[in-house]
Amino acid sequence: MSDRFLETLSHLRVYALDKPCEIAIFYHEEASALMRFANSAVSLNTTEHLIRLEITAFYGPRRASYEMITDLSEPAELRDGIDIAAEMVKHVQPLTYTPTVPEFRESFCDEAAYDPALAELSGADKLAVFNAATTGLETEAIQLSGIFSNGANTIAQITTRSPHTQVFRTSDAQVTMVLAHSNKKWEVQAEQSAQQLLDLDPQALREELGFLVERFTHDPAQQLPLGRYDIVFGPAATATLISFMNWIAVNGGMMKRGYACLDEAQIGEQVLSPEFTLADDPNRRETYPQRRDYMGLPRTPFPFFEEGIFKGFAWTQDDADEFGAEPTGHTVAHKSLSLSGGGEDVGTLRALAFVPRDGDLLYIPFLHYMNVVNPTQSLVTGSSRFGALLLKRDGSIVTPYNVRLTQRILDIFGDRLAWLSQQTVPYNTSSSYGARNPTAVIVPRFMRVNDLSISHSNPTF
Amino acid sequence: MLDQIKAHLDRLRASGATYVDCRWVPSEDANALTMWNGNLKQAASSRQSGVGIRVLFQGAWGFSAASDLSDLGIVFDRALENARIAAERVTFPVRLAEKDSVQDTFISPCAVDPFEVPLAEKVAFLELLDASLNQRGVQQRMSTLDFIRKQVHFADSEGSEIGKQIIEVFAHIGVRGVDPEGTAHERTFRLGRRGATRGWESLDLDHFRENAERIVSELNQVLQAETCPVDDRSVILLPGIMFLQTHETIGHPLELDRILGYELAFAGGSFVTLQDFGELRYGSERLTARADATLPNSPGSFGYDDDGVPAEDNLLIDRGILVGAITGRQMVEEANAKAQRIIFPESSGANRATAFYRVPIERMTNINIDPGCDGTLDDIVARTERGIILDGDRSWSIGSNREQFHFACEIGWLVEDGRVIDVVKNATYKDDTLRFWNALSAVGDASTWEVVYVENCGKGQPNQVMQLGHGIPVCRFDDVRIGE
What we know:
Helix content of chain B: 10-25%
Radius of gyration of chain A: 24 Å
Largest interface: A-B, 85 and 84 residues
Distance between the termini of chain A: 50 Å
Oligomer: heterodimer
Distance between the termini of chain B: 58 Å
Number of helices of chain A: 10
Helix content of chain A: 10-25%
Shape of chain B: globular
Structural class of chain A: alpha+beta
Number of strands of chain B: 23
Largest sheet of chain A: 10 strands, mixed
Strand content of chain B: 35-45%
Radius of gyration of chain B: 24 Å
Number of domains of chain B: 2
Number of helices of chain B: 9
Shape of chain A: globular
């Protein structure tokens, strides 16, 4: 790895030592590439190389920050950033608490989740993956959309507290393929998350897309009656629900601010199904983990729920400072959430479709535009999308129009949870708003939840 | 720098590119201040600069962006190379609608540049906002100020050169409390358009204090209120939720790239088809909607879009009939060709990028609904038998083709026989989009019309956040399911 940026950070630290305040410098470099498909063509092919520098100044209970998207060849501009942050902190109002300044007692470099072969995958290689996964599936009416996003992230930190640095480097890819019927309006999807080149498997994408296209081409379509259903969620839907848990259930700061469905009195209590074990596990390379947090705290597996028993909240350093809690190593851009698999041996959609069943099962792979209706009640709402199937008791399959679910997450993961599949997969939940922040959640391939109500049912695709 | 850019535009054209443009952003400054329960949780400033290059080669787009401008040629070359690879899989070669070559500048209206206001003065203003919210019943109080100042130079291979300087000011206050059952509730206020300019001068403390009193009072009413019943009623939407209804179920479904399938892998499609233009009854005769990028003093008014097309006032729905869309140069050509008729005679100038490192896509401008003839809010309430007045966006969830939706609001007031009777909490409503707009039974007059600013509309892959506005009146819709 080039150490140019580390030299730059060291020089900036020396410059910052002359300031009357403490300074923390956060470096973020992304090399991002995205090939986007629409209407069976490449609709956009982009590359971005961006360097961000965030400088935070601390002066007792005062804190201010200045961020630049910048160019390392302009040292004067970088030093200006330190001057601006140091000037800002003089004028801000003191907090009611004293924020902790990051302090690194040793240098730390983690490149275990970096694979240059994935990060530097060429445009031609990406096109080849798409072509291999969709061969023979596209027609004049059935057209391909999707993205192949890949890139590398480098994060580095230094503060005036010590000359030690922290460096994290990851590679990531997110592949989404959608086949949609331009007239009938149905759409099916297959996705993959990759941390290394070997994670990419075009044949598995081809298999899932082929199975779904066959269903939507040949099986009857239907508007589902409103009512209660036993639902099997796919990895995208489960990962979305887990991401909402991360937001409104296990975040200590959100709990203190009245935007959470769990409270401190519930620690140690059975609040979810015994099937439900959720941890933040930075040993899972598929989640682009950070094994130290941005304060320098080592990150080890942190249980949130063990067999349904709530084990505790995640506390960032700032929330811990404000509310008098112990930080838990969660001052990171993303956690490494992992929901443990269960006892059901169902590893593929084809296997799910043909497994014997005692009643109808509604398969919902994806929940579109989910939002929180009421955080205290864990009430969320969202619509099915991308290839839902009604697996009839008699073994036949119907392709239902999309439906809306409005449910409490604590019910979904509580006594309604019937089973989780043994097999788990990483589901990529990265958002590309702002700086690149590759994120994935490990979830069981399938999760069955009984007796959920459908509150709206579309009359067409 | 501009001379270098023009030289590279010419060089890429000579290398086979059919079109090239460059957005050079010498500086984009932002300043965000957040106060939470008296703590200045965020005091952040930022600056970014760089270039974004878009190249059209054999009917395919390539894009490249960089903050490092030490070798501008590499950034241009990378964009061309990206386009060459994309050209290997083309089904409908990109064509761009005609436009005039323009040399011009646009400066958004601003009296006092917020970046010239000392930080201490901004913090003092936030402290006053926070103090105004610190009242009985309030457990959490939030105040935010966001300022943006961006300078953009656009140049393309068709000879356009456009300079833009845009200043935005966004401000928001909110309060949160907990009801006797332990459920949290929130009431918020966001600054909309006031006056002719949008600088520091638009932050009127008295206006915020009035609204602080109102939202605290309303929060305390919600905390004591009964839960919204499950029922079918007329819903009367105040601007604090009407803007979002318009945004999600008129704005997004009428983005032409969505209609043509360009967002299918992520944000979704649209229930609207090309055959619907000129035919589809989108709403009742009371509904006239427009994308008006010429509305003075709004984030949705920007002079020229990032295709270099001038801002337009573009009719979308004319007395209930769908007639227009939110368009850019590429999509109107493709839509007309696919429809085999001229639906869109030209681009409506709505192709925008959030930053130099993102590619322009169709974005809302100011998606407005014309005021109607049904009088004031009081007039509408007086003519409502069984209804509910709703305000404040608490949550929103919309189907992938924008065909149905579910919204939760911060507050509701039940209406019986033309009179407001009770405040209710946990108010929600849901419907199918077309049924809902066709149930539009009253549109308030100009006294009810407000321009609400939106600072965080998200769309696209890679994702982009955009600023825009909605000019909307109070509206009533009949027979809507509430309380689910």
